[in-house]
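Why do we care about 3D structure at all? Because function follows from shape, and shape follows, mostly, from sequence. That is the central idea of this module. The next example makes it concrete: a single protein chain, its amino acid sequence, and then its structure expressed as tokens.
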Amino acid sequence: MRSIKYLSPVGMLGGGFSENHFMAALSEDLAFIGCDSGSCDGGASYLGANKFFQSRGAIKRDIRLLLIGSRKLNIPLLIGSCGGSGGNWNVNWMWEIVKEIAQEEKLHFKTALIDAEPNREVLVQKWRDGKITPLDPAPEIDETTFISAERIVGMMGAEAFLKALEGGADVVLAGRATDASIFSAI
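And the structure:
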């Protein structure tokens, strides 16, 4: 079996890591750089309030290093659960930061943005078809739950990352994703 080497310098983007250690870990045999950017530690309020529990400065500092490293080696950079909660606004927030860094550092790459907020009407139809049921002991839900919720995110697996990579993406910014999906896509 062939081994695949990757680099993930921190458990959650914005948490900080040693720049010297990161740069020393960059090697020609790496297949990709991956990093999660989410957590359930802050609860659902961050998703509903369009807030992130890491500062913009901390995110920008970390992602700048990841972008520089991945472009230096010409390997993919995969980031899951962008902006903490992984909603569409979170992905767009991260995309703005990435574009800013690309301009400042004169970096060029193809980016894939993967949304994680499902269409509300699709959810309502799945509810009507009996394909959605609440987990015990969750409160009762009905069709209005899907329409009135501030945000709903679906958690993606490796398939979305794989599709982005097959489409030629150098940088993948994904909405809510399992940690394992980031690292199993390659």
